[in-house]
Amino acid sequence: MRTAVSPDGISGALRAAAGELDSTQPVHRIRTARSLVDQGMGSISLLGSLLGAFAVLGLVLAAIGIYGVTSYSVAQRTGEIGIRMALGAQRKHVLWLVLSKGSRTILSGAVLGIGGAYGVSRFLVWLIPELPTRDTVALVVITLVLVGVAIVACYLPARRATKVDPMIALRYE
Question: Does pTM surpass 0.85?
Answer without folding.
Answer: no
